[in-house]
Specification:
heterodimer, A: about 325 residues, 14 helices, about 75% helix, B: about 300 residues, mainly alpha, globular
Chain lengths: ~325, ~300
Amino acid sequence: MESASEKIWKTTWQERLQKLRRLSLELWRDKAGFTGMLLIFALLFMALAAPLLAPHHPAEQDLMARLKPPAWSAGGSWNHILGTDHLGRDVLSRVIYGSRVSLIVGVAVVLSAGLFGTVLGLIAGYFRGRADSFIMRWIDTQVAFPGLLLALIILAVIGPSLITVILVLSLNGWMVYGRMTRSAVLSVRETAYVEAAEVLGCNSRRVIFRHILPNLTSPLLTLAILEFARIVLAEAALSFLGLGIQPPATSWGLDVAAGKDYMFRAWWLVTFPGIAISITVLAINLVASWMRLISDPQEREKQFARQMAARLRRSKAKEAAQP
Amino acid sequence: MGRYILKRFWHGIIVIFGVTVFVFVITRMVGDPVKVMLPLEATIEQRAAFEKQLGLDRPIWVQFIDFMTDMAGLDFGNSLWQHRPAMTIVLEKLPYTLVLAFLGIGLAFALSIPLGIIASLRPGGISDRSTVFISLIGLSVPQFWLGLLLIVVFAVQLRWLPTSGIDTPAHIILPAVTMALPALARLVMIVRSAMIDELNQQYVKTCTAKGLPFYRVVGVHALRNASLPVVTLCGWELIRAVAGYSVVVETVFAWPGLGLTAMQAIEREDLILLQAIVFSVALIVVVINILMDFVYTLIDPRLKLA
Protein backbone atom coordinates (compact mmCIF):
# COMPACT_ATOMS: atom_id res chain seq x y z
CA MET A 1 0.00 0.00 0.00
CA GLU A 2 1.13 3.48 -0.80
CA SER A 3 1.10 6.09 1.88
CA ALA A 4 -0.73 9.31 1.20
CA SER A 5 2.41 11.39 1.01
CA GLU A 6 3.88 8.99 -1.52
CA LYS A 7 0.79 9.36 -3.66
CA ILE A 8 1.05 13.13 -3.59
CA TRP A 9 4.68 12.94 -4.54
CA LYS A 10 3.86 10.62 -7.42
CA THR A 11 1.16 12.84 -8.90
CA THR A 12 3.28 15.95 -8.69
CA TRP A 13 6.07 14.03 -10.35
CA GLN A 14 3.78 13.01 -13.17
CA GLU A 15 2.45 16.51 -13.44
CA ARG A 16 5.95 17.79 -13.74
CA LEU A 17 6.65 15.37 -16.54
CA GLN A 18 3.54 16.52 -18.33
CA LYS A 19 4.49 20.16 -17.85
CA LEU A 20 7.92 19.42 -19.26
CA ARG A 21 6.35 17.74 -22.28
CA ARG A 22 4.08 20.71 -22.88
CA LEU A 23 7.03 23.05 -22.56
CA SER A 24 9.16 21.10 -25.02
CA LEU A 25 6.24 21.07 -27.46
CA GLU A 26 6.10 24.83 -27.20
CA LEU A 27 9.84 25.01 -27.69
CA TRP A 28 9.56 22.85 -30.80
CA ARG A 29 7.02 25.30 -32.22
CA ASP A 30 9.45 28.23 -31.82
CA LYS A 31 12.11 27.16 -34.30
CA ALA A 32 14.64 29.83 -33.31
CA GLY A 33 14.40 28.98 -29.62
CA PHE A 34 14.61 25.28 -30.44
CA THR A 35 17.79 25.79 -32.46
CA GLY A 36 19.27 27.81 -29.61
CA MET A 37 18.47 25.10 -27.07
CA LEU A 38 19.96 22.45 -29.36
CA LEU A 39 23.15 24.49 -29.72
CA ILE A 40 23.39 24.96 -25.95
CA PHE A 41 23.10 21.22 -25.38
CA ALA A 42 25.73 20.59 -28.06
CA LEU A 43 27.98 23.12 -26.34
CA LEU A 44 27.47 21.52 -22.94
CA PHE A 45 28.32 18.15 -24.43
CA MET A 46 31.41 19.66 -26.07
CA ALA A 47 32.61 21.11 -22.77
CA LEU A 48 31.99 17.92 -20.79
CA ALA A 49 33.42 15.52 -23.34
CA ALA A 50 36.29 17.75 -24.47
CA PRO A 51 39.04 15.13 -23.92
CA LEU A 52 37.11 12.60 -26.02
CA LEU A 53 36.23 15.00 -28.84
CA ALA A 54 39.45 16.95 -29.23
CA PRO A 55 41.91 15.30 -31.64
CA HIS A 56 44.92 16.81 -29.80
CA HIS A 57 45.72 18.19 -26.37
CA PRO A 58 45.05 21.96 -26.47
CA ALA A 59 48.55 22.81 -25.24
CA GLU A 60 50.37 20.25 -27.39
CA GLN A 61 52.90 22.08 -29.56
CA ASP A 62 54.17 20.88 -32.90
CA LEU A 63 56.75 23.39 -34.09
CA MET A 64 57.18 21.54 -37.40
CA ALA A 65 53.53 22.22 -38.23
CA ARG A 66 53.21 25.91 -37.33
CA LEU A 67 50.49 28.11 -38.87
CA LYS A 68 49.01 25.29 -40.96
CA PRO A 69 45.77 26.37 -42.69
CA PRO A 70 42.48 24.48 -42.27
CA ALA A 71 42.11 21.11 -43.99
CA TRP A 72 40.08 22.35 -46.96
CA SER A 73 42.51 25.05 -48.08
CA ALA A 74 45.81 24.49 -49.85
CA GLY A 75 48.54 23.15 -47.57
CA GLY A 76 46.14 21.96 -44.86
CA SER A 77 45.94 18.44 -43.56
CA TRP A 78 43.14 16.44 -41.93
CA ASN A 79 45.35 15.97 -38.91
CA HIS A 80 44.57 19.58 -38.02
CA ILE A 81 41.06 20.20 -39.34
CA LEU A 82 40.92 23.88 -38.43
CA GLY A 83 44.66 24.44 -38.82
CA THR A 84 47.35 25.25 -36.24
CA ASP A 85 48.53 28.41 -34.50
CA HIS A 86 51.96 30.03 -34.24
CA LEU A 87 53.14 27.32 -31.83
CA GLY A 88 51.69 24.47 -33.87
CA ARG A 89 48.77 23.92 -31.48
CA ASP A 90 45.59 22.47 -32.96
CA VAL A 91 42.94 25.19 -33.36
CA LEU A 92 39.96 22.79 -33.25
CA SER A 93 41.11 21.28 -29.96
CA ARG A 94 41.63 24.73 -28.48
CA VAL A 95 38.15 25.81 -29.58
CA ILE A 96 36.66 22.68 -28.00
CA TYR A 97 38.52 23.15 -24.72
CA GLY A 98 37.81 26.88 -24.73
CA SER A 99 34.10 26.20 -24.24
CA ARG A 100 34.92 24.96 -20.72
CA VAL A 101 36.21 28.31 -19.49
CA SER A 102 33.27 30.23 -20.95
CA LEU A 103 30.75 27.90 -19.32
CA ILE A 104 32.55 27.75 -15.96
CA VAL A 105 32.84 31.52 -15.73
CA GLY A 106 29.28 32.02 -16.96
CA VAL A 107 27.73 29.56 -14.50
CA ALA A 108 29.84 30.74 -11.55
CA VAL A 109 29.11 34.41 -12.14
CA VAL A 110 25.40 33.93 -12.78
CA LEU A 111 25.07 31.81 -9.63
CA SER A 112 27.02 34.10 -7.31
CA ALA A 113 25.75 37.42 -8.66
CA GLY A 114 22.22 36.04 -8.98
CA LEU A 115 22.20 34.68 -5.44
CA PHE A 116 23.57 37.88 -3.91
CA GLY A 117 21.34 40.19 -5.93
CA THR A 118 18.21 38.12 -5.37
CA VAL A 119 18.71 37.87 -1.60
CA LEU A 120 19.33 41.60 -1.28
CA GLY A 121 16.35 42.32 -3.53
CA LEU A 122 14.13 40.04 -1.40
CA ILE A 123 15.25 41.76 1.78
CA ALA A 124 14.71 45.22 0.31
CA GLY A 125 11.30 44.41 -1.12
CA TYR A 126 9.96 42.43 1.85
CA PHE A 127 11.16 44.46 4.82
CA ARG A 128 11.19 47.85 3.06
CA GLY A 129 11.95 50.78 5.37
CA ARG A 130 15.56 51.46 6.18
CA ALA A 131 16.99 48.25 4.72
CA ASP A 132 15.24 48.99 1.44
CA SER A 133 16.47 52.55 1.11
CA PHE A 134 20.00 51.52 2.04
CA ILE A 135 20.13 48.66 -0.49
CA MET A 136 18.51 50.67 -3.26
CA ARG A 137 20.88 53.58 -2.72
CA TRP A 138 23.79 51.15 -2.82
CA ILE A 139 22.51 49.70 -6.10
CA ASP A 140 21.89 53.15 -7.61
CA THR A 141 25.41 54.23 -6.70
CA GLN A 142 27.06 51.11 -8.02
CA VAL A 143 25.09 51.16 -11.27
CA ALA A 144 26.51 54.63 -11.90
CA PHE A 145 30.09 53.33 -11.46
CA PRO A 146 32.23 52.88 -14.55
CA GLY A 147 32.19 49.08 -14.15
CA LEU A 148 34.85 47.92 -16.57
CA LEU A 149 37.38 50.50 -15.44
CA LEU A 150 36.98 49.52 -11.79
CA ALA A 151 37.40 45.92 -12.91
CA LEU A 152 40.64 46.97 -14.59
CA ILE A 153 41.91 48.46 -11.32
CA ILE A 154 41.06 45.31 -9.39
CA LEU A 155 42.71 43.11 -12.01
CA ALA A 156 45.78 45.35 -12.12
CA VAL A 157 46.22 45.22 -8.35
CA ILE A 158 45.27 41.64 -7.56
CA GLY A 159 46.45 40.09 -10.81
CA PRO A 160 44.30 38.25 -13.34
CA SER A 161 43.20 34.65 -12.81
CA LEU A 162 40.06 32.56 -13.25
CA ILE A 163 38.95 33.38 -9.69
CA THR A 164 39.52 37.14 -10.00
CA VAL A 165 37.63 37.20 -13.31
CA ILE A 166 34.65 35.48 -11.67
CA LEU A 167 34.88 37.81 -8.67
CA VAL A 168 35.11 40.97 -10.75
CA LEU A 169 32.26 40.03 -13.07
CA SER A 170 30.01 39.04 -10.13
CA LEU A 171 30.80 42.29 -8.34
CA ASN A 172 29.78 44.13 -11.48
CA GLY A 173 26.62 42.23 -12.34
CA TRP A 174 24.53 41.60 -9.22
CA MET A 175 22.60 44.87 -9.30
CA VAL A 176 20.17 43.87 -12.06
CA TYR A 177 18.96 40.90 -10.03
CA GLY A 178 18.53 43.09 -6.97
CA ARG A 179 16.46 45.68 -8.76
CA MET A 180 14.25 43.19 -10.54
CA THR A 181 13.65 41.02 -7.48
CA ARG A 182 12.74 44.05 -5.37
CA SER A 183 10.18 45.38 -7.82
CA ALA A 184 8.65 41.91 -8.25
CA VAL A 185 8.49 41.37 -4.48
CA LEU A 186 6.78 44.72 -4.00
CA SER A 187 3.98 43.68 -6.34
CA VAL A 188 3.64 40.13 -4.94
CA ARG A 189 3.82 41.27 -1.33
CA GLU A 190 0.35 42.82 -1.31
CA THR A 191 -1.42 39.74 -2.65
CA ALA A 192 -3.93 37.81 -0.54
CA TYR A 193 -1.94 34.60 -0.29
CA VAL A 194 1.09 36.34 1.19
CA GLU A 195 -1.18 38.00 3.71
CA ALA A 196 -2.79 34.63 4.45
CA ALA A 197 0.61 33.04 5.05
CA GLU A 198 1.51 35.84 7.41
CA VAL A 199 -1.78 35.56 9.28
CA LEU A 200 -1.22 31.81 9.66
CA GLY A 201 1.96 32.68 11.50
CA CYS A 202 4.69 31.87 8.99
CA ASN A 203 7.92 33.57 9.89
CA SER A 204 9.37 36.00 7.39
CA ARG A 205 11.95 33.52 6.10
CA ARG A 206 9.24 31.03 5.23
CA VAL A 207 7.06 33.67 3.59
CA ILE A 208 9.96 34.94 1.51
CA PHE A 209 11.33 31.61 0.37
CA ARG A 210 8.18 29.47 0.16
CA HIS A 211 5.55 31.96 -0.91
CA ILE A 212 7.24 34.87 -2.66
CA LEU A 213 10.36 33.43 -4.29
CA PRO A 214 8.56 30.72 -6.38
CA ASN A 215 6.60 33.49 -8.08
CA LEU A 216 9.79 35.14 -9.22
CA THR A 217 11.37 32.09 -10.83
CA SER A 218 10.42 32.72 -14.44
CA PRO A 219 11.51 36.38 -14.68
CA LEU A 220 14.66 35.58 -12.70
CA LEU A 221 15.47 32.62 -14.93
CA THR A 222 15.05 34.73 -18.06
CA LEU A 223 17.27 37.43 -16.59
CA ALA A 224 19.88 34.87 -15.57
CA ILE A 225 20.04 33.49 -19.11
CA LEU A 226 20.41 36.98 -20.60
CA GLU A 227 23.11 37.73 -18.06
CA PHE A 228 24.84 34.49 -18.97
CA ALA A 229 25.19 35.72 -22.56
CA ARG A 230 26.58 39.03 -21.33
CA ILE A 231 29.08 37.27 -19.04
CA VAL A 232 30.38 35.04 -21.83
CA LEU A 233 31.06 38.18 -23.90
CA ALA A 234 32.62 39.98 -20.92
CA GLU A 235 34.94 37.08 -20.11
CA ALA A 236 36.02 36.91 -23.76
CA ALA A 237 36.68 40.67 -23.79
CA LEU A 238 38.72 40.56 -20.56
CA SER A 239 40.73 37.59 -21.81
CA PHE A 240 41.25 39.37 -25.13
CA LEU A 241 42.66 42.37 -23.26
CA GLY A 242 45.04 40.04 -21.40
CA LEU A 243 43.29 40.62 -18.06
CA GLY A 244 41.21 37.47 -17.95
CA ILE A 245 42.24 33.84 -18.30
CA GLN A 246 46.01 33.50 -18.46
CA PRO A 247 47.96 31.06 -20.63
CA PRO A 248 48.58 28.09 -20.57
CA ALA A 249 44.82 27.84 -19.92
CA THR A 250 42.65 28.19 -23.02
CA SER A 251 39.91 30.70 -23.60
CA TRP A 252 38.31 31.89 -26.82
CA GLY A 253 39.09 35.52 -26.08
CA LEU A 254 42.70 34.65 -25.34
CA ASP A 255 43.01 32.78 -28.63
CA VAL A 256 41.62 35.72 -30.62
CA ALA A 257 44.19 37.98 -28.93
CA ALA A 258 47.02 35.56 -29.75
CA GLY A 259 45.82 35.17 -33.34
CA LYS A 260 45.58 38.94 -33.80
CA ASP A 261 49.33 39.22 -34.45
CA TYR A 262 49.06 36.68 -37.27
CA MET A 263 45.76 38.02 -38.61
CA PHE A 264 47.07 38.93 -42.06
CA ARG A 265 48.87 35.61 -42.64
CA ALA A 266 46.61 33.17 -40.82
CA TRP A 267 42.95 34.25 -40.86
CA TRP A 268 41.79 31.02 -39.20
CA LEU A 269 43.41 31.85 -35.86
CA VAL A 270 41.10 34.81 -35.23
CA THR A 271 38.09 33.49 -37.11
CA PHE A 272 37.25 30.20 -35.40
CA PRO A 273 37.38 31.21 -31.72
CA GLY A 274 35.39 34.33 -32.64
CA ILE A 275 32.75 32.24 -34.38
CA ALA A 276 32.62 29.98 -31.32
CA ILE A 277 31.90 32.96 -29.04
CA SER A 278 29.28 34.36 -31.43
CA ILE A 279 27.43 31.06 -31.81
CA THR A 280 27.41 30.48 -28.05
CA VAL A 281 26.04 33.91 -27.28
CA LEU A 282 23.54 33.77 -30.14
CA ALA A 283 22.22 30.41 -28.91
CA ILE A 284 21.75 31.78 -25.39
CA ASN A 285 20.06 34.91 -26.73
CA LEU A 286 17.65 32.84 -28.85
CA VAL A 287 16.62 30.77 -25.83
CA ALA A 288 16.28 33.90 -23.71
CA SER A 289 13.98 35.60 -26.22
CA TRP A 290 11.86 32.45 -26.42
CA MET A 291 11.63 32.35 -22.63
CA ARG A 292 10.62 35.98 -22.47
CA LEU A 293 7.83 35.25 -24.92
CA ILE A 294 6.41 32.28 -23.03
CA SER A 295 6.69 33.85 -19.58
CA ASP A 296 4.86 37.03 -20.63
CA PRO A 297 1.09 36.51 -20.33
CA GLN A 298 0.38 39.26 -22.86
CA GLU A 299 2.64 37.63 -25.42
CA ARG A 300 1.03 34.24 -24.73
CA GLU A 301 -2.38 35.74 -25.34
CA LYS A 302 -1.22 37.17 -28.66
CA GLN A 303 0.26 33.84 -29.63
CA PHE A 304 -2.96 32.06 -28.73
CA ALA A 305 -4.97 34.54 -30.81
CA ARG A 306 -2.64 34.07 -33.74
CA GLN A 307 -3.03 30.29 -33.57
CA MET A 308 -6.83 30.59 -33.40
CA ALA A 309 -6.81 32.94 -36.37
CA ALA A 310 -4.65 30.54 -38.35
CA ARG A 311 -6.96 27.62 -37.52
CA LEU A 312 -10.02 29.65 -38.52
CA ARG A 313 -8.41 30.64 -41.80
CA ARG A 314 -7.53 27.02 -42.53
CA SER A 315 -11.06 25.78 -41.91
CA LYS A 316 -12.46 28.63 -44.02
CA ALA A 317 -10.10 27.68 -46.82
CA LYS A 318 -11.23 24.08 -46.54
CA GLU A 319 -14.87 25.15 -46.78
CA ALA A 320 -14.09 27.27 -49.79
CA ALA A 321 -12.26 24.37 -51.44
CA GLN A 322 -15.30 22.11 -51.05
CA PRO A 323 -17.90 22.62 -53.78
CA MET B 1 12.45 71.08 -10.47
CA GLY B 2 15.20 72.75 -8.45
CA ARG B 3 14.93 70.18 -5.70
CA TYR B 4 15.06 67.34 -8.20
CA ILE B 5 18.23 68.66 -9.83
CA LEU B 6 19.77 69.21 -6.40
CA LYS B 7 19.00 65.59 -5.55
CA ARG B 8 20.68 64.39 -8.74
CA PHE B 9 23.78 66.46 -7.98
CA TRP B 10 23.88 65.01 -4.49
CA HIS B 11 23.65 61.50 -5.94
CA GLY B 12 26.48 62.33 -8.32
CA ILE B 13 28.66 63.44 -5.44
CA ILE B 14 27.90 60.20 -3.59
CA VAL B 15 28.91 58.20 -6.67
CA ILE B 16 32.19 60.09 -7.02
CA PHE B 17 32.85 59.62 -3.32
CA GLY B 18 32.09 55.89 -3.62
CA VAL B 19 34.45 55.49 -6.55
CA THR B 20 37.20 57.31 -4.67
CA VAL B 21 36.79 55.16 -1.55
CA PHE B 22 36.69 52.03 -3.68
CA VAL B 23 39.88 52.95 -5.53
CA PHE B 24 41.60 53.78 -2.25
CA VAL B 25 40.59 50.51 -0.61
CA ILE B 26 41.61 48.42 -3.62
CA THR B 27 44.95 50.08 -4.27
CA ARG B 28 46.12 50.79 -0.71
CA MET B 29 44.50 48.14 1.45
CA VAL B 30 43.80 45.08 -0.72
CA GLY B 31 46.86 45.42 -2.89
CA ASP B 32 50.34 46.68 -2.12
CA PRO B 33 51.11 49.59 -4.46
CA VAL B 34 54.85 49.26 -3.92
CA LYS B 35 54.75 45.62 -4.97
CA VAL B 36 52.70 46.46 -8.05
CA MET B 37 54.71 49.43 -9.21
CA LEU B 38 58.32 48.56 -8.38
CA PRO B 39 60.25 45.73 -10.08
CA LEU B 40 60.92 42.58 -8.08
CA GLU B 41 64.65 43.21 -7.76
CA ALA B 42 64.21 46.59 -5.99
CA THR B 43 66.18 46.77 -2.74
CA ILE B 44 64.62 47.40 0.66
CA GLU B 45 66.06 50.94 0.69
CA GLN B 46 64.54 51.66 -2.72
CA ARG B 47 61.20 50.39 -1.51
CA ALA B 48 61.36 52.57 1.60
CA ALA B 49 62.28 55.62 -0.48
CA PHE B 50 59.43 54.92 -2.88
CA GLU B 51 57.00 54.53 0.02
CA LYS B 52 58.16 57.84 1.40
CA GLN B 53 57.80 59.49 -2.01
CA LEU B 54 54.18 58.35 -2.27
CA GLY B 55 53.51 58.95 1.42
CA LEU B 56 52.72 55.29 2.05
CA ASP B 57 54.72 55.20 5.30
CA ARG B 58 52.11 57.28 7.14
CA PRO B 59 49.06 55.93 9.02
CA ILE B 60 46.24 54.77 6.76
CA TRP B 61 43.74 57.43 7.82
CA VAL B 62 46.23 60.22 7.11
CA GLN B 63 46.75 58.66 3.69
CA PHE B 64 42.99 58.53 3.20
CA ILE B 65 42.42 62.20 4.00
CA ASP B 66 45.35 63.13 1.79
CA PHE B 67 44.00 60.98 -1.03
CA MET B 68 40.56 62.56 -0.77
CA THR B 69 41.89 66.13 -0.84
CA ASP B 70 44.10 65.29 -3.82
CA MET B 71 41.12 63.84 -5.70
CA ALA B 72 38.96 66.85 -4.83
CA GLY B 73 41.60 69.10 -6.34
CA LEU B 74 42.05 66.78 -9.37
CA ASP B 75 45.70 66.39 -8.39
CA PHE B 76 46.78 62.80 -8.89
CA GLY B 77 50.54 63.23 -8.85
CA ASN B 78 53.05 62.38 -11.55
CA SER B 79 52.61 59.40 -13.80
CA LEU B 80 55.34 56.86 -13.09
CA TRP B 81 55.52 55.96 -16.75
CA GLN B 82 55.64 59.37 -18.42
CA HIS B 83 57.00 61.47 -15.51
CA ARG B 84 54.48 64.26 -15.90
CA PRO B 85 51.20 65.05 -14.13
CA ALA B 86 48.66 62.28 -14.70
CA MET B 87 45.89 64.84 -15.14
CA THR B 88 47.71 66.43 -18.09
CA ILE B 89 47.83 63.04 -19.81
CA VAL B 90 44.13 62.47 -19.10
CA LEU B 91 43.17 65.86 -20.55
CA GLU B 92 45.28 65.12 -23.61
CA LYS B 93 43.60 61.76 -24.28
CA LEU B 94 40.06 62.60 -23.25
CA PRO B 95 38.98 64.36 -26.51
CA TYR B 96 39.82 61.24 -28.54
CA THR B 97 37.63 59.03 -26.35
CA LEU B 98 34.75 61.52 -26.37
CA VAL B 99 34.84 62.03 -30.15
CA LEU B 100 34.82 58.28 -30.78
CA ALA B 101 32.05 57.62 -28.25
CA PHE B 102 29.77 60.43 -29.42
CA LEU B 103 30.29 59.61 -33.10
CA GLY B 104 29.67 55.89 -32.57
CA ILE B 105 26.58 56.26 -30.39
CA GLY B 106 25.28 59.13 -32.55
CA LEU B 107 25.56 56.88 -35.59
CA ALA B 108 23.73 54.08 -33.77
CA PHE B 109 20.98 56.47 -32.63
CA ALA B 110 20.50 57.95 -36.11
CA LEU B 111 20.21 54.52 -37.75
CA SER B 112 18.14 52.87 -35.03
CA ILE B 113 15.11 55.17 -35.39
CA PRO B 114 14.24 54.49 -39.05
CA LEU B 115 15.11 50.78 -38.73
CA GLY B 116 13.08 50.38 -35.54
CA ILE B 117 10.09 52.21 -37.01
CA ILE B 118 10.10 50.08 -40.15
CA ALA B 119 10.18 46.93 -38.02
CA SER B 120 7.36 48.18 -35.77
CA LEU B 121 4.89 48.98 -38.56
CA ARG B 122 4.07 45.32 -39.16
CA PRO B 123 4.95 43.29 -36.04
CA GLY B 124 5.63 39.69 -37.04
CA GLY B 125 6.07 40.67 -40.68
CA ILE B 126 9.09 39.89 -42.79
CA SER B 127 10.89 43.21 -42.17
CA ASP B 128 10.21 42.93 -38.44
CA ARG B 129 11.45 39.39 -38.11
CA SER B 130 14.59 40.03 -40.16
CA THR B 131 15.37 43.16 -38.12
CA VAL B 132 15.00 41.25 -34.87
CA PHE B 133 17.13 38.38 -36.11
CA ILE B 134 19.92 40.64 -37.39
CA SER B 135 19.85 42.57 -34.10
CA LEU B 136 20.21 39.30 -32.19
CA ILE B 137 23.27 38.46 -34.26
CA GLY B 138 24.61 41.96 -33.64
CA LEU B 139 24.18 41.40 -29.89
CA SER B 140 26.01 38.10 -30.04
CA VAL B 141 29.19 39.06 -31.87
CA PRO B 142 31.99 40.14 -29.52
CA GLN B 143 32.98 43.71 -30.20
CA PHE B 144 36.72 43.12 -30.34
CA TRP B 145 36.22 40.38 -32.91
CA LEU B 146 33.91 42.57 -34.94
CA GLY B 147 36.64 45.22 -35.04
CA LEU B 148 39.21 42.69 -36.23
CA LEU B 149 36.82 41.40 -38.92
CA LEU B 150 36.22 44.95 -40.18
CA ILE B 151 39.98 45.50 -40.35
CA VAL B 152 40.50 42.30 -42.32
CA VAL B 153 37.66 43.02 -44.77
CA PHE B 154 37.82 46.79 -45.30
CA ALA B 155 41.48 47.53 -44.61
CA VAL B 156 43.34 44.42 -45.71
CA GLN B 157 41.19 42.80 -48.41
CA LEU B 158 39.42 45.78 -49.99
CA ARG B 159 42.00 48.41 -48.99
CA TRP B 160 39.29 51.06 -48.67
CA LEU B 161 40.13 52.25 -45.17
CA PRO B 162 43.23 52.46 -42.97
CA THR B 163 43.75 49.77 -40.31
CA SER B 164 44.57 51.76 -37.19
CA GLY B 165 45.96 55.03 -35.91
CA ILE B 166 44.73 58.63 -36.27
CA ASP B 167 46.52 60.13 -39.28
CA THR B 168 43.52 61.08 -41.45
CA PRO B 169 39.80 61.65 -40.81
CA ALA B 170 39.15 58.30 -42.53
CA HIS B 171 40.86 56.61 -39.59
CA ILE B 172 37.85 57.17 -37.39
CA ILE B 173 35.39 55.30 -39.63
CA LEU B 174 36.18 51.72 -38.61
CA PRO B 175 36.44 52.39 -34.85
CA ALA B 176 33.21 54.40 -34.92
CA VAL B 177 31.36 51.65 -36.79
CA THR B 178 32.70 49.05 -34.35
CA MET B 179 31.52 51.23 -31.47
CA ALA B 180 28.11 51.73 -33.10
CA LEU B 181 27.04 48.22 -34.13
CA PRO B 182 26.32 46.53 -30.75
CA ALA B 183 24.64 49.73 -29.52
CA LEU B 184 22.63 49.85 -32.75
CA ALA B 185 21.39 46.30 -32.19
CA ARG B 186 20.13 47.13 -28.69
CA LEU B 187 18.66 50.49 -29.74
CA VAL B 188 16.75 49.03 -32.67
CA MET B 189 15.11 46.50 -30.34
CA ILE B 190 14.05 49.27 -27.95
CA VAL B 191 12.76 51.59 -30.71
CA ARG B 192 10.81 48.69 -32.15
CA SER B 193 9.14 47.60 -28.93
CA ALA B 194 8.42 51.17 -27.80
CA MET B 195 6.87 52.00 -31.19
CA ILE B 196 4.77 48.84 -31.21
CA ASP B 197 3.40 49.81 -27.79
CA GLU B 198 2.61 53.35 -28.91
CA LEU B 199 1.01 52.37 -32.22
CA ASN B 200 -1.48 50.23 -30.30
CA GLN B 201 -2.67 53.22 -28.27
CA GLN B 202 -6.03 54.88 -28.79
CA TYR B 203 -4.64 58.30 -29.65
CA VAL B 204 -3.02 56.84 -32.75
CA LYS B 205 -6.45 55.76 -33.95
CA THR B 206 -7.82 59.22 -33.14
CA CYS B 207 -5.07 60.89 -35.16
CA THR B 208 -5.68 58.62 -38.12
CA ALA B 209 -9.46 59.09 -37.88
CA LYS B 210 -9.03 62.86 -37.86
CA GLY B 211 -7.27 62.50 -41.19
CA LEU B 212 -3.64 63.09 -40.31
CA PRO B 213 -1.30 61.61 -42.90
CA PHE B 214 0.27 58.33 -41.85
CA TYR B 215 3.83 59.62 -41.72
CA ARG B 216 2.79 62.37 -39.29
CA VAL B 217 0.97 59.95 -37.01
CA VAL B 218 3.98 57.65 -36.85
CA GLY B 219 6.83 60.12 -37.15
CA VAL B 220 5.50 62.89 -34.90
CA HIS B 221 2.86 61.65 -32.49
CA ALA B 222 3.90 58.07 -31.80
CA LEU B 223 7.64 58.68 -32.09
CA ARG B 224 7.63 61.49 -29.55
CA ASN B 225 5.84 59.35 -26.99
CA ALA B 226 8.12 56.40 -27.69
CA SER B 227 11.26 58.44 -27.31
CA LEU B 228 11.65 58.30 -23.52
CA PRO B 229 12.93 54.71 -23.26
CA VAL B 230 15.00 55.25 -26.41
CA VAL B 231 16.73 58.31 -24.99
CA THR B 232 17.28 56.49 -21.69
CA LEU B 233 19.01 53.63 -23.43
CA CYS B 234 20.97 56.07 -25.57
CA GLY B 235 22.36 57.70 -22.45
CA TRP B 236 23.28 54.29 -21.11
CA GLU B 237 25.01 53.40 -24.35
CA LEU B 238 26.97 56.64 -24.23
CA ILE B 239 28.08 55.86 -20.69
CA ARG B 240 29.05 52.34 -21.64
CA ALA B 241 30.92 53.62 -24.68
CA VAL B 242 33.02 56.02 -22.60
CA ALA B 243 33.49 53.78 -19.58
CA GLY B 244 33.74 50.33 -21.11
CA TYR B 245 33.75 49.81 -24.84
CA SER B 246 36.38 52.50 -25.31
CA VAL B 247 38.94 50.16 -23.74
CA VAL B 248 38.20 47.36 -26.21
CA VAL B 249 37.69 49.44 -29.36
CA GLU B 250 40.67 51.71 -28.74
CA THR B 251 42.91 48.70 -28.10
CA VAL B 252 41.87 47.04 -31.36
CA PHE B 253 42.34 50.18 -33.47
CA ALA B 254 45.27 51.75 -31.55
CA TRP B 255 43.06 54.83 -31.04
CA PRO B 256 44.92 57.02 -28.52
CA GLY B 257 42.10 57.69 -26.07
CA LEU B 258 41.64 57.01 -22.36
CA GLY B 259 40.84 53.32 -22.87
CA LEU B 260 44.09 52.54 -24.65
CA THR B 261 45.98 54.68 -22.13
CA ALA B 262 44.40 52.70 -19.27
CA MET B 263 45.62 49.46 -20.84
CA GLN B 264 49.11 50.93 -21.28
CA ALA B 265 49.09 52.12 -17.68
CA ILE B 266 48.27 48.58 -16.54
CA GLU B 267 51.02 47.16 -18.72
CA ARG B 268 53.56 49.60 -17.27
CA GLU B 269 52.18 49.13 -13.75
CA ASP B 270 51.42 52.82 -13.40
CA LEU B 271 48.67 52.87 -10.77
CA ILE B 272 48.75 56.65 -10.48
CA LEU B 273 47.79 57.18 -14.11
CA LEU B 274 45.18 54.40 -13.89
CA GLN B 275 43.62 56.06 -10.82
CA ALA B 276 43.47 59.39 -12.64
CA ILE B 277 41.72 57.77 -15.63
CA VAL B 278 39.17 55.92 -13.51
CA PHE B 279 38.37 59.02 -11.49
CA SER B 280 37.94 61.23 -14.57
CA VAL B 281 35.75 58.68 -16.31
CA ALA B 282 33.58 58.42 -13.18
CA LEU B 283 33.22 62.20 -13.29
CA ILE B 284 32.17 62.09 -16.95
CA VAL B 285 29.66 59.33 -16.24
CA VAL B 286 28.08 61.41 -13.49
CA VAL B 287 27.91 64.46 -15.77
CA ILE B 288 26.25 62.44 -18.56
CA ASN B 289 23.73 61.10 -16.03
CA ILE B 290 22.77 64.61 -14.94
CA LEU B 291 22.54 65.82 -18.54
CA MET B 292 20.23 62.89 -19.30
CA ASP B 293 17.86 64.12 -16.58
CA PHE B 294 17.66 67.50 -18.29
CA VAL B 295 16.87 65.80 -21.59
CA TYR B 296 14.04 63.83 -19.92
CA THR B 297 12.34 67.02 -18.78
CA LEU B 298 12.60 68.36 -22.33
CA ILE B 299 10.87 65.27 -23.73
CA ASP B 300 8.26 64.81 -21.04
CA PRO B 301 7.22 68.10 -19.39
CA ARG B 302 5.30 66.17 -16.74
CA LEU B 303 8.62 65.19 -15.15
CA LYS B 304 9.32 68.85 -14.35
CA LEU B 305 6.78 68.71 -11.54
CA ALA B 306 8.34 65.73 -9.86
